[in-house]
Every structure is written in C-alpha cells, then in structure tokens.
Amino acid sequence: MKILMVAPEPFFEARGTPFSEYYRIRSLLEQGHTVDLYTYPLGEEVSLPGLTVHRSLKPFWIKSVVIGPSINKLFLDFFLFLKALFAAWRGRGSYGYVHTHEEAGYLGALVKRVFKIPHLYDMHSSLPQQMINFNTTKSSFVIGLLKRGEGFVLRSADRIITICPELYKYVTSLFPEKRVFLIENFMDQEYEVDPERVKEIRALFPGKRIVLYAGTLEYYQGIEILLEATRFLPEDVALLSVGGRDDQIRDLLRKGEYDPSRVRLLPQVPKREISSYIAGCDVLVSPRKEGTNTPLKIYSYMKSGKPVVATSILSHTQILDETTSILVEPTPQGLARGILEAFGERGVSCAAKAEEYGKEHFSPERYLHLVALSVEGLGRS
User: Fold this and answer.
1) What is the pLDDT of residue 135?
2) Would you say 336 and 229 are in contact if contact means Cβ atoms under 8 Å apart?
3) Together in a domain, 241 and 252
C-alpha cells in the first residue's frame, strides 16, 4: 500500500517526535508498504528503500526549529500543508491512507473530507496541553479553540495512535467508539558500546561516581533542579549532561556557578555514542518537572541495566514504579536523596527489574506487531 505521511518536524533530527516518525516509517516499510513523506526543509537526509522524502519550501530566515509551538512553525506548516494537500489531490486514487503526525492532523481531517482518503492520526501529544507546557499562552479562549480543533481531528480520524498510557486514556474517554492504539516509543537502535569512549567518559571525572542525564534542555525537563541537586551531593558524585543546544548550555552556566570538576554540560552527541555514555556512568536520571508524555530516554534507561532515578510525576509513573526505579519529588533535595539511594542495594535491585521488564515488553517484534495492527484493514491496497 502507498501511504501519504505528513510530519511537521525537522526530519531527521535526534529528538522525540522525529525518532517516533522514523520507527513508524521503518515498520511500515518492513511490512511491504511504501511511504511518501512530506516534511520540513530541515533535518538530516534519510535513505530507506520504499521511502520518498518531499520537503516543503524553506523561508530564508528559518535556520532551525525549537521544540514546541513557535512562529517559525506556523510558516513552515503553511508551506508544508500546501505541498501535501497538492500531493493528496494529485495522488487521491493511489494513496491507501494519509498518516499524519502532530498538528498535521488538521490537514489529515481536511484530506479525508475532500478526497475521501482514510486518515490515521498519530497523536504524539495533546496540542492544547503543549501550549500550556511550553508557556505559549495562558488564554482560556485560545486553549478552548485548540481543544475544539483537537476534538475535530480525533472525531474525523479512522484510526488513532497514541504514544503513552495517559494519552490513550484521554482519547478513549472522549471517543470510546474509535479504534485507538497505544504504541509507546520504545524502539531504539542498539549500538555497540565503545570501550575507548567509555574510558574517556570516566576520565572526565577521575575517581568519581557519575550521574548521567541524556536529553534536551527544554525548561520542562527540569535540568535546573538537577543542577541544584549537585549542591546536596557528596564531593565524589559528578553530573554529566548530554544533549541540548549550545545557547541553552551557555544560559544554564551563566545562571549558576557549578564546579567543572563535578558538573559537565555537553551538547548533543551522535546517537551511536549514547550507549557508550550510558555504559560509562553509574546512575541515570530524568528530572522532568511536568508533562504527561513519557520521555523516550526512559525506555533506553530501563533496558540499560543501570539504576534509574526519576521524578514522581505522571510522565514517569505511567511506566515506572517503585520496583523498577527510584521515584522522588521534583526538588533538588529529592533528586539528591534518590541519587544517593541509587548507589546502594536498592539501585541494583531496581536496575535488574527494569532491565527484565524492558526486554520483555519493549522488543522490536512487539513494536512491529502493534504498527501492523494499527493499519490492518485500513485504506486501499
């Protein structure tokens, strides 16, 4: 089956939604489908047999896109939606269904109504909730409009994929009659650990126990809380953060004075190196302070065999519990206590149980099965 997919993100870029889109595409291709992907004019090129990437017009002033809602995304979405709409019109007899991600769901609803092409909405988050999480607006009028728009998209979709249990509950409570699928973003390409790289990582903090945070530095991730937590940790405990933009790192270092012998903030590294960073550290931490979507890093953390410390918020507790992680209050003192506990026997126990759970529930075979189930009987062959 030929699939029209619309992804309003820089594809490919090493962050949450593009990762999810990549593995959706790979799974669909493995099942014998072909995918025409319409996406932003930003990101790394991806070459997969059966995938054709079409990029929209690039406004000259846009060099990158931040995570979350922004003015630049409005311009990029406008040109992307125009190009994808034309593609839907031109290929209305050949596409089996239209597969949309995030705000492209509005386009999918339009395509279904105008061209009668079935619509699968891949819901990575609630758009009204995103506006709140990113402090884009506090206007009840705007949030209300977005909620009505989201309801329109969900109502129009023939199938809906959600990426975390809380989102699944949200959609099924609104539309219990819909075919809704829960496909968590646990797919991750496994890279071999480089022993030399591990030695280099350990050498950053000679003789110290190392805590690793791997991920973006958006404010909701709670990195400021984690940095403050280092003040409550012994001298032999160091923090290594990997990810984020250079400007974010500069801002964080400007706000606080941190001992470079105990705190290092590194920019984003190639995906293939993350497994070596995990292997080179002793405890893994996710200090997120708000949100409902499960961070992608949690799935990698659980499969690593290393103790995991996470804040006790819904983003984490819908996957983690007290047997697979050390859950703490989202405060500097809470994180510090959890990190110290992770170095002990409880950390060893939680790490073993998390690894066992991850290997059982987060396998490539299960992911492929779930994606196949979500498109079974949908569209025209």
Assistant:
1) 64
2) yes
3) yes
pLDDT in tens, 49-108: 999 999 999 999 999 998 878 899 999 999 999 999 999 999 988 999 999 999 999 999
Task: Give the predicted TM-score (pTM) of the model.
Answer: 0.87
Inside any domain, residue 272: yes
Q: Same domain, yes or no, for 124 and 224?
A: no
Q: Domain range spanning residue 173?
A: 2-187+363-375
The contacts of residue 315 (CB under 8 Å, 6+ apart) are 288, 290, 291, 292, 293, 294, 295
Q: Are residues 232 and 126 part of one domain?
A: no
pLDDT number for residue 133: 65
Average pLDDT score, the chain? 93
Dist CA 276 CA 195 (whole Å)? 8
Burial bucket for residue 122 (CB in 10 Å: 0-12, 13-18, 19+): buried
pLDDT, one tens digit per residue, over 274-327 is 999 999 999 999 999 988 889 999 999 999 999 999 999 999 999 999 999 999
Per-residue pLDDT at 129 exceeds 80? no
Q: Between the CA atoms of 130, 135, 140 and 146, what dihedral angle is there, to the nearest 10 degrees?
A: -30
**Residue 381, domain member (yes or no):** no
Q: In terms of DSSP H, where are the helices of the chain? A: 16-30, 71-90, 105-115, 127-133, 140-156, 165-174, 195-203, 223-229, 246-255, 274-279, 296-303, 314-317, 332-342, 345-361, 364-375
Per-residue tokens: 60 = 């000259």
d(Cα 60, Cα 172) in Å, to the nearest integer?
Answer: 42
Do 87 and 35 lie in one domain? The reply is yes
Residue 167: C-alpha distances to residues 134, 160, 178, 281 (Å): 18, 11, 14, 32
Give a yes or no: residue 380 inside a domain.
no
